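Can't paste images in this forum, so I'm doing it all in text. The chain is below; anyone willing to post the predicted structure tokens underneath?
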Amino acid sequence: MNKLQLGVIFGSRSCEHEVSVISAVQLMRHVDREKYDVIPVYISQEGAWYTGSPLMEIGTYAPAFKADLPGITRVQPDVTARSGALIGYDRGSLLRGGGRSIVARLDCAIPVMHGLHGEDGSLQGLLELMDIPYASTGVAGSAIAMDKIMMKQCFRGMGFPVLKDLALTRSAWKKDAVEVIKRVEAALPYPLYVKPANLGSSIGVSRAEDFQSLSDALELAFSYDRRVLVEEAVNKPIEVNCAVLGFDDEVMPSVVEMPVTGGELLDFEGKYLRGGGAKGMASLSRVVPAPIGQALTQRVRDLSCDIFRALDCKGVIRVDYMIDPATDQLTITEINAIPGSLAFYLWDKSDPVITYPRLIDHMVTCALRAWEEKEENNLAFKSAILKSVKLEGAKGTKGAKA
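Text version of the structure:
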């Protein structure tokens, strides 16, 4: 029986590049090699694509990526539908030109991207064009999940609980920073959180207590993104997270976790560095299951599944929440379309337990199911419009006569 050629795509031009590398190496170490041939597909910070077995080792990327290691080949994806090919280029010599050859073919892909140019729907769009099954949320859901401003507007329209906020643009900030701050102060009370619209891992996120700290927070956030979200703060919130796995009508929530934050902002260092950077999100201190009571736990799990379905998600996502300890009010912080470490640390503590290799199996199954569903769509509608249209002058189709 032929093994499935499983591409693991990671890296890319993102502030969360290194987190993506850690998550991908973790995943590749847990793939069942009896079922899959693993094909690492690394996208460098410059946007170049590579494949080869050394990409499965974390040492290949530290202290800097070693593109010249034996076994690493620079490639380009063949975007022809259903090809799945990664094309390598022979550098050739002075006497002969270089050639190109197929280095590998992908039967299925697991994007392990965090941030822009991978988690935001851009890579998913490419994989849709290539007609390759892939185990992550689709183009629209990924784009909404990545953009905090759009996410909150969608969730508010769907009736999901979110905090009050204000969206700002860099152009308005450059034009009149003081006026922007006055707009914020008129709309929301201190303290506030300031967040770049399209970043994760708490990069560029700050807490503002007054005019000066708000100014500093906005300056930082606008250095990362042209659009910024300012959001009201909850006093000493309880943070909880829940992952969801599945596709279409088969959706399963994980155990609910409570990250140990001490009531402070969970920043990049707290997420990835304090417990050992090589473990990614798995290194974060957490209480599992979250001690929030059965009723609130069920609300979190149910709402997570509702969000999964509302955005037509696929594979594994993680939804982060805040609970106001004074009122037990639950609000959505964000949705991670490709969570750090694929949230495997929640599934191996869930009931039933799902080990990381089995989690990967589930993700591949979701990818193949979605691809098969897409194949049922009718793309062969035929009409005689091209035979009967005569274009006159520069009017285009609106001025055409049949």
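Residues 356-375 form the longest helix (20 residues). The mean pLDDT is 90.
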